[in-house]
């Protein structure tokens, strides 16, 4: 039987989502960090070259008799050409007048000092540029003249580097996320695995296996397994007490009954009159009837209980049928009944062996009870397409027109069997056992008289 | 046959003893495992009838010690439980068969016979009378070295007649002993079996005599 449990989320999913969120945040941080460090490095190296270029120009400035000699060295621009094909601009101002270069090249926001170049970004004719400004003071005719040197370069090469770096950083971030995600999934699985193995260990058990759970579990699961074992042991205790009680009850009821029956048999042996014989036979029959009813009621209760929780095992069905036939052969012999068996050898069946044995016992018992003396009972076991078929055929009094459905009603018995001890539970039980195994039970009248009980499992 | 009956309920033990003695068997009664162990050490039994719930232990323990010390006496358990799992566990412990209380003595006897036959039996129970040899265990009759198998009711009828030779047994008495109590046969049903047995006895001097209006008896001429 399956019970639908209310689900309060999944531990595994919860853990996995949390790990993935952490991995996502770490990936984003990695991406941003790589990008900004790389951009800064690229910008710094660009600055250095621009600065070096400006310094190179500044160092070549000299004072002439008529003013300043500007001699732009080739290396000043070639070093810029080395990093990209971007356009290079320059502007040299002396005392705020442009001496050479682009006079509209933007100036830095603050006036640079003489010691170190100033770096800044600006728009020049609609194109973003990066520029370095260097101030030099040169004495001309003993009068200091401040010379401002600007060197600028467009930023296409720089942008290309930046976007390459961004792509690499993104790839790195995604790669990190994928690796971390996979590892999170694996970690989640291995964390949740003990839970499943505990569930499996319990699920794999037979329906009546009440041993405590002994498999090693992580310490977090120990309280759960402990309380489960505690529960199992309480259940086992209750079942044991019930079984002991039943055994003792049966013992205390059946032992005096056995005494009554034995005494009645002894008295019957010595009975002188027909009326006392009749009385004693009635006593014996009543004892038999009560004992039989008690057994069948217990069997019936056992079947209801076990049908819910079948303990399915594979077993040799042929052997079981042979065992049942052997166990009942002494009773069959008392009536001079011949039991013929045609059993296909080694037929394997998966089912509740105890229940199937109860069903077979009932069928054999019926066949023996209702058989005429000196007749034959045929037991046949055959493998068919729809399962293993067991036929038990007797040459008894038949069903006298009663339908199978009315015979398998509880406590209902055939009209023609008033003289035979019986409880009317036998066929009900066989039918219940057959349907618990998804099998089929039918009882039909033989053409030549007698009945044929067929159990298809 | 010699039985050892291990049963703590004195009433039942006395009844069973008395009942088995009626069939001509010898019975020793042990009320607990201690007595039972003393009995099996001092006497050889053909069969042990064992109750499971005993005051000083379980009959299963007795079975286990019997089997582990190579005791070969067949054991039939008298159990109060009728469940299949109980039966399986009893047979697994080494019981040869079992009967459920309250039990039918005819059934018990049939089971004893089957168990003894399975175990190879003892040949000492051959009965000789009027030129025939009768082996109840093997259900065979030997007349002039000719083997004549008997069916169960013929066998029991012959046993009953032989157990009270020369005495007249009433039809009613024979019906009670030959048919189960759940059947309700007429007294004439007995005639069928007497007729069959007479046929089997042809050729020897043992004769089943009809005593009109009273019953039957077996005589050797």
Describe the structure.
The complex is a heterodimer of chains A (457) and B (221). Helices cover 53% and strands 20% of the residues of chain A. Chain A is α+β, with helices and mostly antiparallel strands. Chain A has 3 domains: 14-164, Beta-Lactamase, CATH 3.30.450; 209-309, no CATH class; 310-457, Heat Shock Protein 90. In chain A, the strands form 4 sheets. In chain A, strands 4-3-7-6-5 form a 5-stranded antiparallel sheet. Chain A has a 5-stranded mixed sheet with strand order 9-11-12-14-13. A two-stranded antiparallel ribbon of chain A has the order 1-2. In chain A, helix 1 (11-59) packs antiparallel against helix 3. The radius of gyration of chain A is 51 Å and the shape is rod-shaped. The mean pLDDT of chain A is 85. By secondary structure, chain B is of the alpha/beta class. Chain B has 2 domains: 2-118, Rossmann fold (3-Layer(aba) Sandwich); 126-220, Arc Repressor Mutant, subunit A, CATH 1.10.10.10. In chain B, strand 9 (132-135) and strand 10 form a beta hairpin. In chain B, helix 6 (152-163) packs across helix 8 (189-201). The model of chain B has no long low-confidence stretch (mean pLDDT 86).
What summary fits the major beta sheet of chain A?
5 strands, antiparallel
Q: Strand pairing plus helix content of chain B: what structural class?
A: alpha/beta
Poorly predicted runs of 5 or more residues of chain B: none
Helical residues, percent of chain B: 40-55%
Report the total helices of chain B. 8
Strand element count of chain A: 14
Distance between the termini of chain B: 28 Å
Q: Reading side by side through the largest sheet of chain A, how are the strands ordered?
A: 4-3-7-6-5
CATH top level of the largest domain in chain B is: Alpha Beta
How many domains of chain B? 2
| CATH fold group of the largest domain in chain B | Rossmann fold
């Amino acid at each position: 039987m399956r019970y639908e449990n209310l689900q309060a989320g999944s531990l595994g999913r919860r853990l996995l989502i949390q790990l993935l969120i952490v991995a996502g945040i770490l990936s984003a941080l990695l991406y941003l960090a790589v990008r900004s460090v790389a951009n800064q490095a690229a910008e710094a190296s660009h600055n250095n070259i621009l600065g070096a270029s400006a310094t190179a120009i500044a160092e070549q400035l000299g004072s002439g008799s008529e003013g300043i000699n500007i001699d732009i060295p080739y290396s000043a621009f070639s070093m810029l050409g080395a990093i990209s094909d971007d356009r290079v601009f320059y502007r040299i101002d002396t005392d705020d007048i442009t001496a050479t270069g682009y006079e509209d090249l933007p100036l830095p926001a603050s006036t640079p000092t003489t010691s170190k170049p100033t770096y800044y970004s600006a728009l020049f004719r609609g194109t973003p540029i990066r520029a370095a400004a260097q101030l030099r003071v040169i004495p001309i005719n003993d009068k200091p003249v401040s010379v401002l040197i600007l060197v600028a370069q467009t930023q296409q090469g720089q942008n290309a580097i930046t976007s390459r770096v961004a792509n690499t950083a993104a790839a790195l971030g995604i790669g990190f996320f994928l690796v971390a995600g996979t590892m999170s999934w694996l970690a989640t699985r291995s964390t949740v695995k003990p839970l499943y193995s505990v569930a499996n260990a319990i699920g794999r058990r037979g329906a009546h296996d009440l041993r405590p759970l002994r498999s090693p579990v992580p310490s977090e699961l120990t309280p759960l397994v402990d309380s489960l074992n505690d529960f199992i042991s309480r259940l086992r205790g209750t079942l044991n007490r019930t079984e002991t009680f039943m055994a003792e009850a049966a013992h205390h009821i059946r032992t005096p009954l056995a005494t009554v029956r034995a005494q009645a048999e002894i008295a019957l042996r010595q009975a002188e009159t027909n009326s006392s014989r009749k009385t004693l036979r009635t006593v014996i029959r009543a004892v038999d009837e009560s004992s039989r009813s008690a057994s069948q009621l217990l069997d019936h209760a056992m079947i209801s209980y076990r049908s819910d929780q079948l303990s399915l095992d594979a077993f040799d069905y042929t052997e079981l049928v042979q065992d049942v036939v052997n166990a009942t052969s002494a009773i069959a012999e008392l009536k001079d009944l011949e039991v013929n068996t045609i059993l296909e050898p080694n037929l394997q069946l998966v089912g509740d062996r105890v229940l199937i044995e109860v069903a077979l016992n009932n069928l054999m018992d019926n066949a023996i009870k209702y058989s005429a003396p000196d007749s034959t009972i045929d037991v046949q076991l055959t493998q068919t397409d729809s399962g293993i078929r067991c036929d038990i055929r007797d040459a008894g009094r038949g069903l006298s027109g009663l339908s199978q459905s009315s015979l398998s009603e509880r406590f209902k018995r055939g009209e023609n069997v008033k003289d035979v001890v019986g409880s009317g539970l036998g066929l009900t039980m066989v039918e219940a056992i057959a349907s618990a195994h998804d099998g089929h039970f039918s009882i039909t009248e033989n053409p030549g008289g007698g009945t044929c009980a067929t159990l298809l499992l | 046959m010699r039985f050892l009956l291990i049963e703590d309920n004195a009433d039942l033990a006395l009844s069973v003893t008395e009942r088995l003695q009626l069939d001509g068997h010898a019975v020793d009664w042990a009320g607990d495992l201690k007595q039972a162990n003393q009995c099996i050490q001092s006497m050889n039994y053909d069969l042990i009838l064992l109750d499971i719930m005993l005051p000083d232990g379980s009959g299963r323990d007795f079975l286990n010690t019997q089997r582990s010390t190579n005791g070969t006496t067949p054991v039939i358990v008298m159990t109060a439980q009728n469940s299949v799992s109980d039966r399986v566990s009893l047979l697994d412990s080494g019981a040869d068969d079992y009967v459920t209380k309250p039990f039918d003595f005819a059934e018990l006897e049939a089971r004893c016979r089957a168990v003894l036959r399975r175990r190879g039996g003892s040949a000492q129970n051959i009965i000789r009378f009027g030129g025939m040899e009768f082996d109840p265990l093997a259900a065979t009759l030997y007349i002039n070295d000719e083997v004549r198998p008997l069916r169960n009711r013929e066998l029991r009828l012959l046993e009953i007649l032989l157990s009270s030779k020369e005495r007249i047994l009433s039809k009613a008495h024979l019906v009670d002993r030959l048919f189960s109590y759940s059947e309700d046969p007429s007294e004439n049903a007995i005639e069928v079996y007497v007729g069959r047995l007479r046929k089997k006895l042809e050729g020897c001097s043992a004769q089943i005599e009809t005593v009109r209006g009273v019953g039957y008896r077996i005589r050797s001429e």
